[in-house]
Fold this protein.
Amino acid sequence: MTLDRFASPTIAIDGPAAAGKGTLARRLAAHLRFAYLDTGLLYRAVGKKVLAAGVDLSDEAAIQAASSLVVADLDDPALRLDAVAQVASRVAAVPAVRTALLHFQHAFAAAPPGNAGGAVLDGRDIGTVVCPDATLKLFITASLPERAARRLKELRERGSEAIDSRVLRDMQERDARDLSRSVAPLVPAADAVVIDTSGLDPDAVFAAAMRAWQARVSEG
Ligand code: DC
């Protein structure tokens, strides 16, 4: 696979919650002047719509919410709430929800907004399902205790009275659902570069990702 096969280069970043994907994706996008899509927000927005409608969490309610999603739905700070993350990982297991959201993601990667020279997408299935031909695939991971500690710090910085054991348990539950679902489970693509961020600071993660990008570009 060579770079000139791609009309618009794409970097696919996958990995479990709180591994550092978002921080890395934003930084790569800013550095390369690519557009950035946090695909978790799509699932969170669907989850929040179901919660807001006050209906039971049925497949039908989730499919309806996914089909009526608009870009403005992604702009809601409440999407960051942990309660929304839990519902997001439930609706993400519904195959028709994933299909409904594929179009949005493909359109973004094919024609990055703002005339950007490429796109960075992060999520759980970007390298495996959404953009299997991505120029570079990264799988960003870290140990469960480290990810839970990062999430706890983030929640406390936001003024939430999060409890250690609860954050760890919620993350374990979400990991289990994301890993075990039958459709598009969280797995590294065969050709992904895996970066374990345990014990690494964001600068070291960025440097490792840029080395992978440069290697990919010089191969092309
Ligand atoms: O990355 P996040 O924590 O915002 O994602 C929220 C949930 O959405 C996560 O538990 C799994 C799901 N998700 C997914 O299934 N596929 C994606 N590409 C992105 C997120």
Summary: DSSP finds nine helices and five strands in the chain.
